[in-house]
């Protein structure tokens, strides 16, 4: 630890006014670990100790985000903090897990206090909303990289896996898709679209909402689930392949926001909805007979879901629109790059 303190102090970068311990104390220890009585030992020791309730399994995931690769370099610090946790909460949602604790491994080019204050505000704000506690981490100097490891709980045997889809199940997706990919474009091109639409789409990219509550509702109902990070088509295919099945998707019923329709036009919206990434919605399958009751229950709980296709025994994802098969390669969808 002395070593990383020295590195933070001697890395030759501006704004290194604060040491590693002060930094952890001020921006992370003070706000982490609160509000959960199952944290036996939080930040400050060599490792954290948490209580896992009897009859439960621990669900573990980690995601790293790198400046320039997973978010633009000029991304606001608040949004980087938010995103680092949001993408991990989304993995918990896709497993039907209740997120409980997380660790933060932070590599910083400098200890810029203003940046850290904004970053930790984004992080802790989302953590508080979901009742997850920061229980430890690591802090080093280097190119900006943020790794969050998240731990969640499910009653033993009840986690939703990618592999459970069965022929005849409906393929569903939450919310609307394509907004985040359009939001990224809107960030880069300020000329296009109305300011209200641009704002909506950019917000969808900067602050994706992890569907944790929906994930919990899907437990015991969904046969398979995945969160949409790489694009609906790619992620649905991944999930279905894990179950050794395929699907037919109806492109006419893809949930597309009014803002995206106006921003990209009818023609432009569909490839974004199908192949744009970063929405962090949930794609899942469930037995067709359960859809109406589940959709109503979800709606009553403020969760929007849509059925977009049917699981078939043939592997691969086939698309149709206006009752006709669509070859994504012929339509140029395949050349869409995000
Ligand atoms: P060690 O050298 O034993 O790994 P550290 O000095 O790296 O200890 O960390 C001291 C304590 O601060 C540990 O409890 C660790 O989990 C926590 N910690 C370090 N960096 C962070 C961070 N970025 N966020 C939250 N906790 C952190
Ligand atoms: Mg350490």
Secondary-structure blueprint:
Elements: H1 2-10, H2 20-29, E1 39-41, E2 49-50, E3 56-66, H3 77-95, E4 98-108, H4 113-130, E5 133-141, E6 145-155, E7 170-174, H5 179-188, H6 195-206, H7 212-218, E8 224-227, H8 232-242, E9 246-250, H9 258-275, E10 282-286, H10 291-300, E11 305-312, E12 316-321, E13 324-326, H11 328-331
Parallel strand pairs: 4-5, 9-12
Antiparallel strand pairs: 1-2, 3-6, 4-6, 7-10, 7-11, 8-10, 9-11, 12-13
Helix pairs in contact: 3-4, 3-7, 5-6, 6-9
The protein binds adenosine-5'-diphosphate and magnesium ion.
Residues 1, 24, 28, 43-46, 104, 106, 134, 136-139 line the site of adenosine-5'-diphosphate (ADP).
Descriptive labels:
single chain; 338 residues; alpha+beta; 7-stranded mixed beta sheet
Question: N-to-C terminal Cα separation, in Å?
Answer: 40 Å
Side-by-side strand order of the widest sheet: 8-10-7-11-9-12-13
**Low-confidence runs:** 1-16
Total helix count? 11
Structural class: alpha+beta
Structure commentary:
With 338 residues, this protein is an alpha+beta fold. It has eleven helices and 13 strands. A seven-stranded mixed sheet has the order 8-10-7-11-9-12-13. Strands 3-6-4-5 form a four-stranded mixed sheet. A hairpin with a 7-residue loop joins strand 1 and strand 2. The N terminus is likely disordered.
Q: Quick summary of this structure?
A:
This protein is of the alpha+beta class and 338 residues long. The protein has helices spanning 2-10, 20-29, 77-95, 113-130, 179-188, 195-206, 212-218, 232-242, 258-275, 291-300, 328-331, and strands at residues 39-41, 49-50, 56-66, 98-108, 133-141, 145-155, 170-174, 224-227, 246-250, 282-286, 305-312, 316-321, 324-326.
